[in-house]
Amino acid sequence: MNMQATHTTTMPSDQTPVLTRRMKGIAHTAFGDSATLVLGEVDRPAVGAGEVLIQVKVAAVNKGDWHVMTGLPYLIRLAGYGVTTPKHAVLGQEIAGVVAEVGRDVTEFSVGDEVFGEVPHGGFAEYVCASVDRIAHKPATLPFEAAAALPTALTALKALRDVADLQPGQHVLLNGASGGVGTFAIQLAKHFGAVVTAVCSGRNAAFVRELGADHVIDYTKEDFVAAEHRYDLVLDLVGNRTLAECRRVLKREGMYISSAGQGGDWFGPMGRMFGALLTNMVVPQTMTFLSPPDASALAFLAQLHAEGVLCPAIGKRCTLAEVPEALAHQGSGRTRGKTIVTL
Predict the structure, then answer these.
(1) What secondary structure does DSSP assign to 213-248, as a single string?
(2) What DSSP state is assigned to residue 75?
(3) What are phi and psi of 142, to 5 degrees?
(4) Predicted TM-score (pTM) of this structure
(5) Beta strand pairing status for 94-102 and 286-289?
């Protein structure tokens, strides 16, 4: 769909954009599949205290966007996304852009600053508001594409560094290694000195090896829970095998971390998370789940990118109009790396 941008391109003498009340965005009209998303004009958000208004240059697609789009599991709707109809007009959680306006009491950022980070919603539009504790300054050497993709690495970093305290020489199995979080997890695990086994389809085997995986298990030919090798850590980004099956490949002192699960329309991965907590009470291994990460490590991730340690694996690029198609693909579970949206 071709649309004309609704904000003026006329620039006053100080080069500050002239903002109007309306903007182009992907409107989320109802819970359901990608057909519920419409490219059109939406209200530009008003910047509040402790917030900045960001002109979005690049956004990134993640599985959280798909969950909010569908409203599944139903329990997610009680987390502030609306019970019967969407509470927020626009989806999109990972962004990179330029500060266009600052709210009251904001001293960390100024108009014109290049930033990146996470927002709870609103990223698939020309402008989005972000709390200052959810974004970071974007180094000039960090491209906007990479900056928009980097927030996904917060999940991998929290799992490997903060929860597992991964040590050099430990053996890690990554189930779902070719997706957005998995591609970052491979690189971070290698940075921490671990031996990495990646579980993915055969078509992605060369891809994950290029990212640093030492071993690859093609799940279309081999069942990773039947492997003889035992691991210090299993990071499960898919949740397609039972907890008991995953325990089989853990060392006695090993750790299992879940960030996904297939628990039905009501509870989804949350049922698996509670199951891990209960299992943890009666088994020698540590069975746990990953809570949402905070944004405090964004600057650290940018530093790792500058050092050549962390490079976002961009699997697909699309325009704002192609976001519905990208989210449908995200829900298929067959994504490779990160999908980014250029505005």
Answers:
(1) -SEEEETTT--GGG-S--EEEEEESS--S-HHHHHT
(2) G
(3) -95, 110
(4) 0.89
(5) unpaired
Torsion angle, CA of 330/257/130/15, rounded to 10 degrees?
A: -70
Gap between the Cα atoms of 99 and 105, Å rounded: 15
Kindly give, in sequence order, each residue whose CB lies less than 8 Å from that of residue 25, ignoring residues fewer than 6 positions away: 39, 40, 41, 42, 89, 90, 122, 124, 125, 126, 320
Q: Does residue 163 contact residue 187 with C-beta atoms inside 8 Å?
A: no
* Beta strand extents in the chain (DSSP E only): 22-28, 37-43, 51-61, 94-102, 114-118, 127-131, 135-137, 171-175, 195-200, 215-218, 231-236, 250-258, 286-289, 314-319, 338-342
10-residue averages of pLDDT along the chain (343 residues): 36 53 93 94 96 98 91 75 82 97 97 97 97 97 98 97 98 97 98 98 97 97 93 95 95 93 62 80 92 91 97 96 95 90 95
- What Å distances lie between residue 169 and 104, 172, 191, 192, 231, CA to CA? 49, 9, 11, 9, 11
Question: What's the rounded Cα separation, in Å, for the pair 201 and 294?
Answer: 31
Residue with tokens 């769909």: 1
For 13, 101, 145, 206, 319, the CA distances from 6, given in Å and listed in that order, are 21, 17, 24, 44, 17
Answer yes or no: are the C-beta atoms of 163 and 288 closer than 8 Å. yes
